[in-house]
Design goal:
Blueprint lengths: L3 H14 L3 E8 L2 E9 L15 E2 L4 H14 L20 E3 L20 E3 L6 H5 L12 H9 L6 H8 L17 H13 L3 H10 L8 E2 L4 H6 L4 E4 L4 E4 L20 E2 L1 H12 L13 H6 L7 H11 L3 E3 L4 E3 L12 E4 L5 E5 L4 E6 L2 E2 L3 H18 L2
Parallel strand pairs: 7-15
Antiparallel strand pairs: 1-2, 1-14, 3-9, 4-5, 6-9, 7-8, 10-11, 11-12, 12-13, 13-14
Helix pairs in contact: 1-12, 2-6, 2-7, 4-5
Length: 393
């Protein structure tokens, strides 16, 4: 194995692009075959990046939420084709907007509100629709429904209370018809709470983190000690083409008690790597503890989007990938390294997840730069390809 090219690329990110800190782990068959950290965790550049640092995982949370849901499916507690209202009654009668202009770029999309013209949805939202982002929902974190719930609960509403409020938000498509990135995985967290009768964070710790020997490294809310471990966050300023310090983006954390299944986890690179290493190795962790059966993990490698839904995905992910049960799924082996069925996702601050159950390889890359489009277009595929090259696969 020779990871010189990957090391050189990571080392180039600060001088070439201004990325102040990075951390990357590659595992194969439970062995860490590559680990490299660059830069500093503080704005002053005095404290070097360390294994102890914590990062906002943002949408990398989704993989863990969907792992929890797959556990519940595996146990027969819920089923993929169950209607969501079976567990969350407020989702039985939904409304779909009569009009929605999806030709606008994401930052200009105008999502429908409760007062807009709608019709009763013809289809029910199912668990599989939530997992595959085909529930017709939106990612409108500033909707009137959410604002009302925040006011009503005085900023202390539970996950269940906020998800009940979100049901009032009109859908933009009929469930199952189109792919649209949304709050669907937040709704899945509420489903998990209802059927497990546990707070979502408690469920994750009991059935995913503790079995894999992850102790205080994965949380929804940080204590004082964990706050000190947090790597500072930056954003890309398109006007100046510079990376600058920014305030934390916690728009997904609707109240102090809300636990976002789509974006809420904060954790270490080492801790997160243990989860995806287990998934890459058929659901079994390096310590021999199993979080999913191998057959269940295999379901993550199946693309469930077809037709227009697949085209929706590929506008964002390119023709190399489709979308499955909460993850992008490689469906075209002609582009880039990695086998058909490799799956993963990313996070808003630039994190990248690659899970390869064929070669039992996992890749986790973390940085803390918001609104930096080059990450997904350039950094992530290059990190993947250089990791495979270094591993000799």
């Amino acid at each position: 194995m020779d990871f010189t090219k990957l090391t050189d690329f990571l080392d180039s990110l600060e001088p070439a692009y201004g990325v102040k800190s990075t951390d990357c782990i590659v595992t194969k068959n439970h062995e860490i075959i590559f680990r490299h950290m660059t830069g500093h965790k503080d704005y002053e550049g005095k404290t070097a990046v360390s294994d102890n640092d914590m990062y906002y995982l943002y949408s990398c949370t989704k993989i863990i939420t969907c792992t929890a849901v797959m556990q519940l499916i595996e146990k027969g507690i819920i089923h993929l084709y169950d209607p969501v209202y079976k567990y969350l009654p407020e989702y039985e009668v939904m409304r779909t907007a009569n009009e929605f202009d999806d030709t606008l770029p994401p930052h200009l999309l105008k999502y429908p509100e409760q007062a807009d013209a709608c019709h009763y949805s013809e289809r029910q939202i199912r668990i599989i629709d939530l997992m595959s982002m085909m529930g017709g929902m939106t990612y409108d974190v500033a909707s009137e429904a959410i604002k009302k719930a925040q006011i009503k609960t005085k900023g202390k509403g539970s996950t269940r209370e906020l998800i009940e409020a979100i049901a009032a938000m009109p859908l933009i498509y009929e469930p199952g018809a189109r792919w649209h990135y949304s709050l669907a995985h937040d709704v899945l967290a509420a489903v998990a709470e209802v059927v497990s009768k546990e707070k979502f964070s408690d469920y994750l710790h009991k059935y995913i983190f503790e079995p894999l020997d992850i102790t205080d490294d994965m949380v929804f809310s940080m204590n004082e000690t964990q706050e000190k471990r947090l790597s500072v966050i930056y954003e890309y300023d398109a006007k100046t083409n510079c990376i600058i310090p920014c305030r934390r983006d916690e728009s997904y954390k609707f109240t102090e008690n809300y636990e976002s299944g789509g974006a809420g986890l904060i954790g270490t690179v080492s801790g997160y790597s243990k989860v995806i290493d287990a998934l890459a190795c058929g659901g079994e962790g390096a310590n021999g503890k199993r979080i999913l059966k191998e057959k269940t993990v295999g379901m993550f490698s199946s693309c469930v989007t077809t037709g227009q839904a697949l085209r929706d995905v590929q506008i964002q992910e390119g023709t190399e990938y489709g979308y499955g049960l909460g993850v992008r799924v490689k469906i075209n082996a002609k582009n880039g390294r990695g086998p058909i069925g490799e799956f993963g996702w990313g996070g808003a601050a630039g994190a990248y997840v690659c899970i390869d159950p064929v070669n039992h390889i996992s890749i986790f890359y973390a940085q803390h730069v918001m609104n930096f489009p080059i990450c997904g277009k350039v950094f992530h595929p290059l990190i993947r390809d250089l990791a495979y090259e270094g591993a000799g696969v």
